[in-house]
Protein backbone atom coordinates (compact mmCIF):
# COMPACT_ATOMS: atom_id res chain seq x y z
CA UNK A 1 0.00 0.00 0.00
CA UNK A 2 1.40 3.38 -1.02
CA UNK A 3 0.91 6.60 0.92
CA UNK A 4 -1.72 7.82 -1.51
CA UNK A 5 -3.63 4.54 -1.29
CA UNK A 6 -3.62 4.89 2.47
CA UNK A 7 -4.84 8.47 2.18
CA UNK A 8 -7.72 7.30 0.00
CA UNK A 9 -8.73 4.92 2.78
CA UNK A 10 -8.55 7.72 5.32
CA UNK A 11 -10.67 9.91 3.03
CA UNK A 12 -13.47 7.33 3.05
CA UNK A 13 -13.28 7.31 6.86
CA UNK A 14 -13.49 11.12 6.91
CA UNK A 15 -10.15 11.40 8.72
CA UNK A 16 -8.67 14.05 6.40
CA UNK A 17 -9.17 17.74 7.01
CA UNK A 18 -8.66 19.78 3.83
CA UNK A 19 -7.20 23.29 4.23
CA UNK A 20 -8.01 25.27 1.07
CA UNK A 21 -6.88 28.74 2.16
CA UNK A 22 -3.49 29.86 0.87
CA UNK A 23 -0.83 29.15 3.49
CA UNK A 24 2.93 29.66 3.63
CA UNK A 25 5.60 27.03 4.22
CA UNK A 26 7.25 29.53 6.57
CA UNK A 27 5.58 29.17 9.99
CA UNK A 28 1.94 29.14 8.80
CA UNK A 29 1.62 25.44 7.93
CA UNK A 30 3.55 24.37 11.06
CA UNK A 31 1.31 26.64 13.20
CA UNK A 32 -1.80 24.96 11.83
CA UNK A 33 -0.22 21.53 12.34
CA UNK A 34 0.46 22.42 15.97
CA UNK A 35 -3.04 23.82 16.47
CA UNK A 36 -4.72 20.65 15.21
CA UNK A 37 -2.35 17.98 16.58
CA UNK A 38 -4.67 16.95 19.43
CA UNK A 39 -7.63 16.63 17.08
CA UNK A 40 -5.86 13.78 15.30
CA UNK A 41 -6.95 14.47 11.71
CA UNK A 42 -4.67 14.08 8.71
CA UNK A 43 -4.14 17.60 7.36
CA UNK A 44 -4.07 18.23 3.61
CA UNK A 45 -2.86 21.69 2.61
CA UNK A 46 -4.16 22.21 -0.91
CA UNK A 47 -3.06 25.79 -1.61
CA UNK A 48 0.60 26.28 -0.66
CA UNK A 49 1.93 29.74 -1.37
CA UNK A 50 4.54 29.84 -4.19
CA UNK A 51 4.26 26.07 -4.83
CA UNK A 52 2.09 23.80 -6.96
CA UNK A 53 2.51 20.84 -4.60
CA UNK A 54 0.14 19.88 -1.80
CA UNK A 55 1.47 19.22 1.70
CA UNK A 56 0.11 16.40 3.90
CA UNK A 57 0.74 16.18 7.63
CA UNK A 58 -0.12 14.09 10.70
CA UNK A 59 -0.40 10.88 8.66
CA UNK A 60 0.82 8.78 11.62
CA UNK A 61 -0.71 11.06 14.23
CA UNK A 62 -2.86 8.50 16.09
CA UNK A 63 -2.50 4.89 17.23
CA UNK A 64 -5.83 4.12 15.62
CA UNK A 65 -4.54 5.24 12.23
CA UNK A 66 -1.29 3.29 12.60
CA UNK A 67 -3.32 0.18 13.41
CA UNK A 68 -5.46 0.80 10.33
CA UNK A 69 -2.32 1.10 8.18
CA UNK A 70 -1.00 -2.22 9.51
CA UNK A 71 -4.44 -3.88 9.40
CA UNK A 72 -4.16 -4.94 13.03
CA UNK A 73 -6.26 -4.51 16.18
CA UNK A 74 -4.77 -2.27 18.83
CA UNK A 75 -4.28 -5.14 21.28
CA UNK A 76 -2.18 -6.94 18.65
CA UNK A 77 -0.06 -3.97 17.60
CA UNK A 78 3.00 -4.68 19.77
CA UNK A 79 3.03 -8.33 18.76
CA UNK A 80 2.75 -7.39 15.08
CA UNK A 81 5.78 -5.14 15.34
CA UNK A 82 7.92 -7.67 17.21
CA UNK A 83 7.08 -10.36 14.65
CA UNK A 84 8.20 -8.06 11.82
CA UNK A 85 11.44 -7.21 13.66
CA UNK A 86 12.23 -10.89 14.20
CA UNK A 87 11.11 -12.13 10.77
CA UNK A 88 11.88 -9.48 8.13
CA UNK A 89 11.07 -10.30 4.50
CA UNK A 90 13.04 -9.24 1.45
CA UNK A 91 10.99 -6.95 -0.82
CA UNK A 92 10.83 -7.52 -4.55
CA UNK A 93 13.06 -5.32 -6.73
CA UNK A 94 11.22 -3.99 -9.80
CA UNK A 95 12.46 -2.14 -12.88
CA UNK A 96 10.21 0.90 -12.79
CA UNK A 97 7.87 2.78 -10.48
CA UNK A 98 5.61 5.80 -10.24
CA UNK A 99 8.26 7.80 -8.39
CA UNK A 100 10.29 8.00 -11.61
CA UNK A 101 7.56 9.85 -13.53
CA UNK A 102 9.25 13.27 -13.24
CA UNK A 103 13.00 13.92 -12.96
CA UNK A 104 14.40 17.24 -11.73
CA UNK A 105 17.81 18.42 -10.61
CA UNK A 106 17.39 20.66 -7.55
CA UNK A 107 15.38 21.27 -4.38
CA UNK A 108 13.87 24.66 -5.22
CA UNK A 109 10.38 23.44 -6.15
CA UNK A 110 9.85 21.32 -3.02
CA UNK A 111 7.66 22.99 -0.32
CA UNK A 112 10.00 22.35 2.60
CA UNK A 113 8.74 23.90 5.84
CA UNK A 114 10.38 26.34 8.23
CA UNK A 115 8.78 25.31 11.51
CA UNK A 116 9.80 27.64 14.35
CA UNK A 117 11.23 31.12 14.72
CA UNK A 118 14.78 30.18 15.77
CA UNK A 119 15.18 27.27 13.35
CA UNK A 120 18.32 27.48 11.24
CA UNK A 121 16.21 27.30 8.07
CA UNK A 122 13.81 25.00 6.19
CA UNK A 123 13.97 21.35 7.30
CA UNK A 124 12.84 18.09 5.74
CA UNK A 125 11.49 16.14 8.72
CA UNK A 126 9.94 12.98 7.27
CA UNK A 127 13.02 11.78 5.35
CA UNK A 128 13.54 8.01 5.15
CA UNK A 129 17.23 7.60 4.36
CA UNK A 130 18.62 4.39 2.81
CA UNK A 131 22.31 3.54 2.63
CA UNK A 132 24.46 0.48 2.37
CA UNK A 133 28.02 -0.16 3.43
CA UNK A 134 30.78 0.42 0.90
CA UNK A 135 31.32 -3.37 0.73
CA UNK A 136 27.60 -3.84 0.01
CA UNK A 137 27.04 -6.19 2.95
CA UNK A 138 24.98 -3.99 5.28
CA UNK A 139 21.85 -2.01 4.41
CA UNK A 140 20.18 0.51 6.70
CA UNK A 141 17.01 2.60 6.58
CA UNK A 142 16.37 5.34 9.15
CA UNK A 143 14.63 8.68 9.64
CA UNK A 144 16.79 11.83 9.75
CA UNK A 145 16.21 15.56 9.74
CA UNK A 146 17.73 17.46 6.83
CA UNK A 147 18.42 21.18 6.77
CA UNK A 148 18.14 22.74 3.32
CA UNK A 149 21.31 24.72 2.59
CA UNK A 150 20.72 25.61 -1.08
CA UNK A 151 19.32 24.07 -4.26
CA UNK A 152 21.83 21.22 -4.25
CA UNK A 153 22.89 20.67 -0.64
CA UNK A 154 21.49 19.54 2.68
CA UNK A 155 22.94 19.10 6.16
CA UNK A 156 22.02 15.78 7.76
CA UNK A 157 21.82 15.21 11.51
CA UNK A 158 23.64 11.94 12.23
CA UNK A 159 23.30 10.66 15.76
CA UNK A 160 25.86 7.92 16.57
CA UNK A 161 23.77 4.97 15.43
CA UNK A 162 23.62 2.84 12.31
CA UNK A 163 23.78 5.38 9.48
CA UNK A 164 26.51 7.25 11.34
CA UNK A 165 28.49 3.99 11.51
CA UNK A 166 28.14 3.39 7.75
CA UNK A 167 29.22 6.98 7.07
CA UNK A 168 32.23 6.68 9.39
CA UNK A 169 33.46 3.55 7.61
CA UNK A 170 33.05 5.24 4.22
CA UNK A 171 34.77 8.38 5.52
CA UNK A 172 37.75 6.38 6.81
CA UNK A 173 38.08 4.93 3.30
CA UNK A 174 37.98 8.42 1.78
CA UNK A 175 34.62 7.79 0.09
CA UNK A 176 31.31 9.64 0.14
CA UNK A 177 28.33 7.51 1.24
CA UNK A 178 25.64 7.25 -1.43
CA UNK A 179 22.08 7.50 -0.13
CA UNK A 180 18.47 7.76 -1.17
CA UNK A 181 16.02 9.98 0.67
CA UNK A 182 12.35 8.98 0.35
CA UNK A 183 9.58 11.41 1.30
CA UNK A 184 5.92 10.44 1.17
CA UNK A 185 5.81 6.79 2.22
CA UNK A 186 3.15 4.74 4.04
CA UNK A 187 3.09 4.39 7.84
CA UNK A 188 4.60 0.89 7.74
CA UNK A 189 7.82 2.27 6.26
CA UNK A 190 7.94 5.19 8.70
CA UNK A 191 7.51 2.78 11.63
CA UNK A 192 10.07 0.31 10.30
CA UNK A 193 12.61 3.09 9.75
CA UNK A 194 12.05 4.19 13.36
CA UNK A 195 12.46 0.68 14.79
CA UNK A 196 15.36 -0.29 17.12
CA UNK A 197 16.44 -3.39 15.18
CA UNK A 198 20.07 -4.60 15.29
CA UNK A 199 22.75 -3.21 12.99
CA UNK A 200 22.68 -5.23 9.78
CA UNK A 201 18.90 -5.61 9.60
CA UNK A 202 17.46 -3.84 6.56
CA UNK A 203 14.43 -1.88 7.76
CA UNK A 204 12.88 -2.08 4.29
CA UNK A 205 12.61 -5.81 5.00
CA UNK A 206 10.89 -5.05 8.30
CA UNK A 207 8.48 -2.77 6.43
CA UNK A 208 7.81 -5.49 3.89
CA UNK A 209 6.87 -7.87 6.69
CA UNK A 210 4.48 -5.25 8.08
CA UNK A 211 3.06 -4.77 4.56
CA UNK A 212 2.44 -8.50 4.02
CA UNK A 213 5.10 -8.72 1.29
CA UNK A 214 3.60 -5.85 -0.70
CA UNK A 215 6.62 -3.51 -0.74
CA UNK A 216 8.35 -2.98 -4.07
CA UNK A 217 11.72 -1.26 -4.44
CA UNK A 218 13.51 0.26 -7.42
CA UNK A 219 17.17 1.15 -7.86
CA UNK A 220 18.07 4.81 -8.11
CA UNK A 221 19.44 6.23 -11.34
CA UNK A 222 22.16 8.42 -9.80
CA UNK A 223 23.05 6.70 -6.53
CA UNK A 224 23.82 3.17 -5.42
CA UNK A 225 20.63 2.96 -3.40
CA UNK A 226 17.05 1.65 -3.39
CA UNK A 227 13.73 3.40 -2.77
CA UNK A 228 10.05 2.42 -2.58
CA UNK A 229 8.73 2.32 -6.13
CA UNK A 230 5.57 4.21 -5.11
CA UNK A 231 7.14 6.89 -2.92
CA UNK A 232 5.90 10.39 -3.61
CA UNK A 233 9.32 12.04 -3.80
CA UNK A 234 12.94 10.80 -3.80
CA UNK A 235 16.23 12.67 -3.47
CA UNK A 236 19.43 10.92 -4.53
CA UNK A 237 22.57 12.04 -2.83
CA UNK A 238 26.01 11.54 -1.34
CA UNK A 239 26.94 12.21 2.29
CA UNK A 240 30.30 13.92 2.02
CA UNK A 241 33.36 12.35 3.60
CA UNK A 242 35.00 15.78 3.95
CA UNK A 243 32.44 18.58 4.04
CA UNK A 244 30.68 19.56 7.25
CA UNK A 245 28.64 22.65 8.16
CA UNK A 246 26.91 24.09 11.20
CA UNK A 247 23.54 22.33 11.50
CA UNK A 248 20.80 23.70 13.74
CA UNK A 249 19.46 25.02 16.01
CA UNK A 250 16.28 23.00 15.61
CA UNK A 251 13.39 21.96 17.86
CA UNK A 252 13.74 18.36 19.03
CA UNK A 253 11.19 15.87 20.41
CA UNK A 254 11.10 17.56 23.84
CA UNK A 255 9.95 20.83 22.30
CA UNK A 256 13.25 22.49 23.20
CA UNK A 257 16.01 23.62 20.86
CA UNK A 258 18.75 21.17 19.98
CA UNK A 259 22.17 22.80 19.79
CA UNK A 260 24.09 23.84 16.70
CA UNK A 261 26.83 21.35 15.78
CA UNK A 262 28.99 20.41 12.79
CA UNK A 263 27.25 17.80 10.61
CA UNK A 264 27.94 16.27 7.19
CA UNK A 265 26.78 17.84 3.94
CA UNK A 266 24.61 15.85 1.53
CA UNK A 267 25.14 16.67 -2.13
CA UNK A 268 21.87 16.14 -4.00
CA UNK A 269 22.60 14.49 -7.36
CA UNK A 270 19.05 13.76 -8.45
CA UNK A 271 15.39 14.46 -7.68
CA UNK A 272 12.49 12.34 -8.91
CA UNK A 273 8.81 12.29 -8.02
CA UNK A 274 5.32 11.37 -9.09
CA UNK A 275 3.57 13.81 -11.46
CA UNK A 276 1.21 15.16 -8.81
CA UNK A 277 3.26 14.26 -5.76
CA UNK A 278 2.28 15.21 -2.23
CA UNK A 279 4.97 16.46 0.15
CA UNK A 280 4.81 14.73 3.54
CA UNK A 281 5.54 16.96 6.52
CA UNK A 282 6.11 16.06 10.16
CA UNK A 283 5.97 18.60 12.99
CA UNK A 284 9.04 18.44 15.26
CA UNK A 285 7.94 17.70 18.86
CA UNK A 286 4.36 17.15 17.68
CA UNK A 287 2.12 14.19 18.45
CA UNK A 288 3.16 12.34 15.28
CA UNK A 289 6.85 12.81 16.05
CA UNK A 290 6.36 11.50 19.60
CA UNK A 291 4.35 8.51 18.42
CA UNK A 292 6.79 7.44 15.70
CA UNK A 293 9.77 7.69 18.03
CA UNK A 294 8.04 6.38 21.14
CA UNK A 295 5.88 3.51 19.89
CA UNK A 296 8.77 1.19 18.91
CA UNK A 297 10.28 1.71 22.35
CA UNK A 298 6.96 0.96 24.00
CA UNK A 299 7.20 -2.39 22.22
CA UNK A 300 10.68 -2.97 23.65
CA UNK A 301 9.41 -2.19 27.16
CA UNK A 302 6.33 -4.40 26.67
CA UNK A 303 8.51 -7.29 25.51
CA UNK A 304 10.97 -6.95 28.41
CA UNK A 305 8.33 -6.60 31.13
CA UNK A 306 6.29 -9.48 29.66
CA UNK A 307 9.16 -11.79 30.54
CA UNK A 308 8.89 -11.09 34.29
CA UNK A 309 5.17 -10.53 34.99
CA UNK A 310 2.10 -12.63 34.08
CA UNK A 311 0.52 -10.03 31.78
CA UNK A 312 1.29 -6.56 30.47
CA UNK A 313 -1.89 -4.76 29.45
CA UNK A 314 -0.33 -1.64 27.98
CA UNK A 315 2.70 0.63 27.85
CA UNK A 316 2.54 4.38 27.27
CA UNK A 317 5.44 6.75 26.79
CA UNK A 318 3.63 9.74 28.20
CA UNK A 319 3.04 13.19 26.76
CA UNK A 320 4.57 14.58 29.97
CA UNK A 321 7.80 12.78 29.09
CA UNK A 322 7.63 14.03 25.48
CA UNK A 323 6.77 10.54 24.29
CA UNK A 324 10.32 9.49 25.14
CA UNK A 325 11.47 10.00 28.73
CA UNK A 326 8.68 8.61 30.95
CA UNK A 327 6.85 5.28 30.68
CA UNK A 328 3.56 4.18 32.25
CA UNK A 329 3.10 0.39 32.37
CA UNK A 330 -0.17 -1.37 33.15
CA UNK A 331 0.33 -4.94 34.44
CA UNK A 332 -1.77 -7.68 35.95
Any descriptors?
globular; 8 helices; six-stranded antiparallel barrel; 332 residues; 2 domains; four-stranded mixed β-sheet; 18 strands; Pnp Oxidase, Chain A
What does this structure look like?
This protein has 332 residues and is α+β, with helices and mostly antiparallel strands. Helices cover 25% and strands 31% of the residues. A six-stranded antiparallel β-barrel has the order 6-7-8-15-12-9. Helix 4 packs across helix 7, helix 4 crosses helix 8 and helix 6 runs antiparallel to helix 7. The two termini are 37 Å apart.
Strand arrangement within the widest β-sheet reads 6-7-8-15-12-9
Sketch the major β-sheet.
6 strands, antiparallel, barrel
- The CATH superfamily label of the largest domain reads Electron Transport, Fmn-binding Protein, Chain A
Distance between termini?
A: 37 Å
**According to CATH, what is the topology of the largest domain?**
Pnp Oxidase, Chain A
CATH architecture of the largest domain: Roll
Number of discrete domains: 2
Q: From the alpha-carbon coordinates, what is the Rg to the nearest angstrom?
A: 19 Å
- Highest-level CATH class of the largest domain: Mainly Beta
Q: What string gives the helices and strands in order?
A: HEHEEHHEEEEEHEHHEEEEEEEHEE
SSE map:
Elements: H1 3-12, E1 16-19, H2 28-36, E2 42-45, E3 54-57, H3 63-70, H4 77-86, E4 92-93, E5 102-104, E6 123-132, E7 139-148, E8 153-156, H5 162-172, E9 177-183, H6 187-193, H7 203-210, E10 216-219, E11 226-228, E12 233-247, E13 250-251, E14 257-258, E15 261-273, E16 278-281, H8 287-306, E17 312-317, E18 327-331
Parallel strand pairs: 1-2, 3-16, 4-10
Antiparallel strand pairs: 2-3, 5-15, 6-7, 6-9, 7-8, 8-15, 9-12, 10-11, 12-15, 13-14, 17-18
Helix pairs in contact: 4-7, 4-8, 6-7
